[in-house]
Write a structure and sequence with these properties.
This protein is an alpha+beta fold and 503 residues long. The protein has 17 helices and 20 strands. It has two domains: 147 residues, OB fold (Dihydrolipoamide Acetyltransferase, E2P), CATH 2.40.50.140; 252 residues, BirA Bifunctional Protein, domain 2. The chain binds one RNA strand of 76 nucleotides through α2, β1, β2, β3 and β6.
RNA sequence: GGGUGUGUAGCUCAGCCGGUAGAGCAGCGGCCUUUUAAGCCGUUGGUCGAAGGUUCGAUUCCUUCCACACUCACCA
């Protein structure tokens, strides 16, 4: 009595969990093992639906998760979902026997089963496995969100983004189409690796735990090594290590670099993200521009078409990318002559155009802000932007001709977002030291995103680095572009979230 | 960090001007051997995100907090 009353007070979830534990016990009592060790699969559901003519009347063995169950007394229909799709099962007591059918009646949506049976079509024409043997492979005790579908219309979709990201396994089960993004992600990574391997690049791995961080301007995550009793940083970039390898004599290296930046999160930023950086000796940024263009073309072609649609913009990767210098763009969009511009002129322009600015901004910061505000939004078709201010590019070589306030650096913009950052790498050790010392001074003045002075890196450059072209590509953004996603969370299986509070 | 919005059953959602809650699905008990958002009969399940306040009375109004989404800023 008391027990019954206690049970009555349980929430539905608690009831379901208790009922399913009870079912496990009953299944065991009936002589079935709810968690066996293996099952011989002969076909994927997709193979059966794709090759029905060849398989009709043949016996197959498939395994997967029960996603629908429609019981009608002594016979039932169900859908079984495996990695590639779904197939209907017809389960009748006559075919599988009374005892197994009794066990089947205890199964729930979410259970994993293996079945053997004959491929057929029902009278409504759906390809179906007429089951003659059914094995429970894993009993579910926690209910799945139930999604119904008719004629392609989904009812009660599992669409809460928080739940989807936090419980990605549920998302993948219930919304299997999102698997496609991650399958494509894998294809892009493979195509990237092929691209560099086939060009004689060596894939390398460099430290993620770094005693000093560098290669980008960003705040790091800090951790501690106990036996060395020293703080270490999770890398914000692998640039300085890859350059050491160029010094060491590897003349083409690349790395898929998981980077960590302790900064804000939004649709384009996750605290950990993947970049691909690559360095090639004896070439400059013009060479790297061509290579990057080939890279994007290669990815597009690998995925099937040079034409893509992203955020309402059609992009044709078979066409050459535009190449515009900063100076041209400033002249065109803002009417500013960068050759004559200085802080005073920028400030005057900003006042005239009611653009809010900080009087403390230097030349480089002004240029950066104005670019972000007035030029970047216009760069929809793939456009290389060339020649950035030296002040904000401490690792790039000064332009070989023209204004020494600019460096040989390019970024690639597509659909108003940045995808690539590249330099003719600075290999003059005296200049490099001077620039990093300048960064160090900025740090001392409170700019916690200024780069650190890494003496060993300077030593490496002093040892002699050949002329080198170097590139970093934001791989997650590339994947967003080619999978049509507008949020980085949707191309990361487990995007960063505030830890769940379990009460 | 700012703005906007959301938070009610396992899932998807209603709930008006304040009177302590509803539906569908899922679950549970039945019936049902070609169904497919299966159907039919019956039925369990809620500290209405949290804490305060106003009130005779708060899911509803107010305040604060928490979480998430969108967005702006910051940031490559």
């Amino acid at each position: 009595m008391d027990e019954q009353q206690a049970q009555e007070k349980q929430s539905t979830l608690e009831q379901i969990l208790a009922q399913r534990r009870e079912k496990i016990a009953r299944i065991r009592e009936m002589g079935f093992e709810p968690y066996p060790y293996a099952f011989d699969v002969s076909h994927k559901s997709r193979e059966i639906t794709d090759h029905y003519e060849a398989l009709e009347g043949k016996s197959v063995a498939v395994a997967g998760r029960l996603m629908t169950i429609r019981r009608m007394g002594k016979a039932s229909f169900a859908h079984l979902q495996d990695a590639g799709g779904r197939i209907q099962l017809y389960v009748s007591r006559n075919d599988i026997g009374e005892k197994t059918y009794e066990m089947f009646m205890l199964l729930d949506i979410g259970d994993i089963v293996g079945v053997r049976g004959v491929v057929m079509k029902t009278r409504t024409g759906e390809i179906t496995v007429k089951v003659d043997a059914l094995t429970l492979l894993s009993k579910n005790i926690r209910p799945l969100p139930i999604v119904k579908e008719k004629d392609g219309v989904v009812y009660d979709a599992f669409a809460d983004k928080e739940l989807r990201y936090r419980h990605r396994y549920l998302d993948l089960i219930v919304n299997p189409e999102i698997k496609d993004v991650f399958i494509k992600r894998s294809a892009i990574i493979r195509a990237t690796r092929d691209f560099f391997d086939s060009r004689g690049y060596l894939e390398v791995e460099t430290p993620i735990l770094q005693p000093l961080y560098g290669g980008a301007n960003a705040r790091p995550f800090i951790t501690h090594h106990n036996s060395l009793n020293t703080d270490l940083f999770l890398r914000i970039a692998d640039e300085l290590y890859l350059k050491r390898l160029i010094v060491g004599g590897f003349d083409r290296v690349y790395e898929f670099s998981r980077n960590f930046r302790n900064e804000g999160m939004d649709r384009n930023h996750n605290p950990e993200f993947t970049a691909i950086e690559f360095y090639q000796a004896y070439v400059d940024y013009y060479y790297m521009m061509d290579l990057v263009e080939h890279y994007f073309r290669h990815i597009a072609e690998t995925l099937g078409s040079p034409l893509i649609e992203y955020q309402g913009e059609s992009i044709d990767f078979s066409k050459p990318f535009a190449r515009r210098t900063m100076a041209e763009l400033f002249h065109e969009y803002l009417g500013i002559d960068l050759g004559k511009a200085d802080e005073t002129l920028f400030a005057a322009w900003a006042r005239e155009h009611h653009f809010e600015y900080d009087p403390k901004w230097n030349y480089g910061q002004f240029l950066d802000k104005l670019f972000d505000e007035f030029i970047e939004p216009k760069l929809l078709q793939p456009t290389f932007v060339l020649d950035y201010p030296k002040a904000i590019s401490p690792l790039a070589k000064v332009r070989r001709d023209g204004d020494p306030r600019f460096v040989e650096r390019f970024e690639l913009f597509i659909c108003a977002a940045e995808y690539v950052n590249a330099f003719s790498e600075l290999n003059d050790p005296l200049d490099q030291r001077e620039r990093l010392e300048g960064q160090d001074r900025l740090r001392a003045l409170g700019d916690d995103e200024a780069q650190m002075l890494d003496e060993d890196f300077i030593r490496a450059i002093e040892t002699g680095m050949p002329p080198t072209g170097g590139v970093g590509i934001g791989l997650d953004r590339v994947i967003m572009l080619f999978t049509g996603q507008s949020t980085i969370k949707d191309v990361l299986l487990f995007p960063a979230m505030r830890p769940e509070k379990l009460s």
